[in-house]
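Lab notebook, bench 4. The sequencing result for the construct came back, and we need a structural model before the next group meeting so we can plan mutations. Quick request posted to the team channel:

Model the 3D structure of this chain.
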Amino acid sequence: MEQILDETFEKTDFKEKPLTKGEYENCIFRQCDFSNADFSEMAFIDCSFTGCNLSMAGLTKTTFRDVTFKDCKMLGLHFEQCSQFGLAFSFDGCILNHSSFYGTKIKKTVFKNSQLQEVDFTDCDLSGAVVDQCDLLNATFENTTIEKADLRRSYNYSINPERNKVRKAKFSLSAVAGLLNKYDIDIDAKN
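Done. Here's the predicted structure in token form:
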């Protein structure tokens, strides 16, 4: 596999000419279009993606180690297909709607200022994760471990504490209703 080190890729449309298969280490990708790209069996280590479109990219056996995504459009990605060995990334200002983290172990992952609408976190380990100012509308939490996770500044989530591990997780009082949705009760915040 070809190894690419310390390269910067800027304003490139990889729909026209696909990214070379290989291992990318300490590379920077700015405003690149990877929509529908095939990242299968590629590796990204200590890389950053800023302002990129990665929507619907294929992630079969893709390695992400210490990768940052900032202001990226990442619709419909299946992170459960990634290589799970050393899987580590963070997201800031990203749109991850309709993506899946099913069964992944992504402890201490940071999601900041991101849209996580209809994202699947079923069987996911989010222990110690920071989910800060994120929209979790219709996100699925089923048998999810969110112990010691911080969701205090996130909103629109619905998490059933009986079907998820929530011990020592942090929630704000204003959004705690998201833990009671299954009971179909009305909560009056005015009193």
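The first strand starts at residue 2 and ends at 5.
Will bring this to the meeting.
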